[in-house]
Structures are given as C-alpha cells and as structure tokens.
Specification:
By secondary structure, this protein is an all-beta fold. The protein has a single domain, classed as SOR catalytic domain (Immunoglobulin-like). The chain has no helices and eight strands. The two termini are about 20 Å apart.
Length: about 80
Amino acid sequence: MREMEVDENLKGIEIRNDGDEIILSIAHAMTKDDYISFIAFERWDNLYFRKLYPEWNEEISFPARKGKLIWGTNKEKINSIRF
C-alpha cells in the first residue's frame, strides 16, 4: 500500500492509495460541536457523495483517479483540493 502526500489543507482527513482505490480516514475529532459534515469526490463524469455524522469515525473509498475532493464541517466553509 502506497501512502499519498498529505496536504495541510486537508484538516482531519487522511488519504492513502490502495491500488485502484483512494481511502479516506477521518482523523477529525467528530464531536457534536465540531465534525466533518460531508465528503464528496468529483470527477469529470461522476460525483460521489458521503454524508457524515457526529461521533462516527469512518473510512470512505473512491476509485483512484484524478478528481477533486470536497468537504465541509459544521463550523467552517467548504474546502476542496485536486489530486
């Protein structure tokens, strides 16, 4: 399994590449007061969307292709990064 470079803008999301999948692990505290509300992965032909809830720690996988990762917390603006 090959680790991907972690960008400082990711704030609580760890990314690793496992062959043909990108696996996201939520490293954020995920308390009721401060949690990542959603994660989406946009490609030219698809949008994968995952709603997240407080106190749930999850791993999410997407096909390993170029795209844009979009996420937002209940307290901050929406963030995104291309890879």
